[in-house]
Amino acid sequence: MPELNDTQKLLELLQAGQPKPPSEVDTSTVRYALYARKSTTSEDRQASSIEDQIKECMEKLVSPNNLRIVQVYEESYSAKIADTRPRFNAMINEIENGRIDGVISWHPDRLSRNMKEAGSIIDLVDRGLIKHLLFPTFTFENTPAGKMLLGITFVMAKQYSEHLSESVDRGNKRAIEDRTLFIGKFKHGYVVDVDRYFQPDPHNFTKVKEMFTMALSGKSQKDLRLWINKQNYTVQKLPGGEYKSHVWDKDDVSKLLKDPHYAGVHKWGKSLTNLVEAYDFEPMITVDEYLKINRIVSLNSSKVYAISSPKSGDIAADLLRGMVYCSKCNKTLTSMLIPKKDKDGNVHHARYYYKCETEGCTMENKSARAAIVIEAAQQFFQQYLFVTKSNYADYVKKAEAEANRKAEEFTSAIARHKILIANKEKSYEDTKQLVANNPELKEHYDLDKYAKEIKKLKSEYQKANDSKQRIKSAIPSFEEYLKLLESTPVILSKIRDMKTMDTFLRIFFSNFTIYPIKDGTFKGSKVTYKLNEPWQGFIDDDDFVRGAGQGTLTPGLVLGKDAL
């Protein structure tokens, strides 16, 4: 089955773009610890979380880069409260003693969700005791801006973010790999059956296939868009739902042609699976046709995985992608890099733009320089510098309420463990007496197992008790709370790496909207923004110090080879 082999080859090449450790670190000499944590000891929650974390770290970082793991630490305790995790403390001790000098974890929030332990990690990096810190879901660079970004990520993880989307992605990956179901975004030309498999949609499979045929014949994406929008195209986005009219835009067509799903490889988040091998999936095009449409010479080309995953080090137009809107059509603007050439035709830098590509919008095909959006963010940080005492008091009130809630959870856990210990001890004594009276039954009862279970329950009881006592001491001081926030204007003004800036801004901002002064040009436009919580609440309550920010971005947002 040559097509199956081609599909499998396509799958493997799409998987090839794995993160590599920075070249300046000699990874052959680094002794790594792999730390995985889930937030509960309950058997029915997050049951596969640790296993999935380890699996993804091994697949994305350890195996591709031949990293040496000297110890794996697994933990089933929340990281909200400091000094409650014995395995984490054991790892820190090994780092302090020089037996471990590299750490791998699925995401920073697995290492810490409290400021004390987050500070310990950053301090170990500063002192050079942690030579290499790696995450498959987060890029850390050992620079002042990188450490600042890591610190903010720890703080956000503590109070406001559980990274639910990434947790769902991890569960989806396991579901796909287990072949139990196929999930993901709606796919044009297909419907999902009762078994959650993709099947040809009788209403529009042939219409979408015709778009691929047109692309193969040399028609432009605009030709495809104009054609499909004349076909009374309707879609059923939910299984069993009604068909609704859909107008294709330029992004829809571009994503369709680049999506390997139509050649038999389904992509959902970071997960990839061969649908042709998994069940009787009917591809819309062959792998050869997919390669031709995307101008790829063969399956040996590195351009295959670059379609979905730009190579490390390349500058991709991802800065605030999907977050910048046109006020005229309320659609997201397309992110793009436009190269600037000298008189000899050599590209010496590129400028970042946002372009409206909504058909029929008065701003269609008009572009705005990204600098006006970044300058709006800069002005925000200059106007609203950091949280005030009254703001902090509100934070403490909420933190204490959370601490009280957590204390109640520990109180329940303590009471539950008391009952479990009492019941287990009674079972142990009853079994011991039964075996004493009936020696022939000894081989059927494991008294040592009972003893170990009792010991474990008592240990968990003590940990819950200790954690309850430590809860309120974990609330940070006002000075600790402000330490990161007070320097944000300067930090933003110095960031030149696009990925770092994007991550930094997404912590604070939900979206931006560009309002042109007149139709047909974005020149002189006004930019508004919406903030994430808790920042929006602080603004609504007028609870910021004003006018104390420093630092100015270089106008124009010029992108060279190594700088933003």
Q: Mind sketching the topology for me?
A:
Blueprint: H1 2-14, E1 31-37, H2 49-65, E2 68-75, H3 86-96, E3 102-105, H4 108-111, H5 115-126, E4 132-134, H6 144-159, H7 164-177, E5 190-192, E6 198-200, H8 205-216, H9 221-228, E7 234-235, E8 244-245, H10 250-258, E9 265-268, E10 271-274, H11 275-278, H12 287-293, H13 303-306, E11 324-326, E12 334-341, E13 347-355, E14 367-369, H14 371-383, E15 384-387, H15 389-437, H16 447-470, H17 478-485, H18 488-494, H19 498-508, E16 509-515, E17 526-531, H20 535-540, E18 544-546, E19 558-559
Parallel strand pairs: 1-2, 1-3, 3-4, 11-16
Antiparallel strand pairs: 5-6, 7-8, 9-10, 12-13, 13-14, 13-19, 15-18, 16-17
Task: Walk me through the structure.
It contains 20 helices and 19 strands. The protein is an alpha/beta fold and 564 residues long. Helix 5 (115-126) runs antiparallel to helix 6 and helix 15 (389-437) packs antiparallel against helix 16 (447-470). The relative contact order is 0.10. A hairpin with a 5-residue loop joins strand 12 and strand 13. The two termini are 48 Å apart. It has helices at residues 2-14, 49-65, 86-96, 108-111, 115-126, 144-159, 164-177, 205-216, 221-228, 250-258, 275-278, 287-293, 303-306, 371-383, 389-437, 447-470, 478-485, 488-494, 498-508, 535-540; strands spanning 31-37, 68-75, 102-105, 132-134, 190-192, 198-200, 234-235, 244-245, 265-268, 271-274, 324-326, 334-341, 347-355, 367-369, 384-387, 509-515, 526-531, 544-546, 558-559. Strands 2-1-3-4 form a four-stranded parallel sheet, with helices on both faces. Strands 12, 13, 14 and 19 form a four-stranded antiparallel sheet that branches. Among the domains are: 2-170, Rossmann fold, CATH 3.40.50; 182-306, Hect, E3 ligase catalytic domain fold; 389-477.
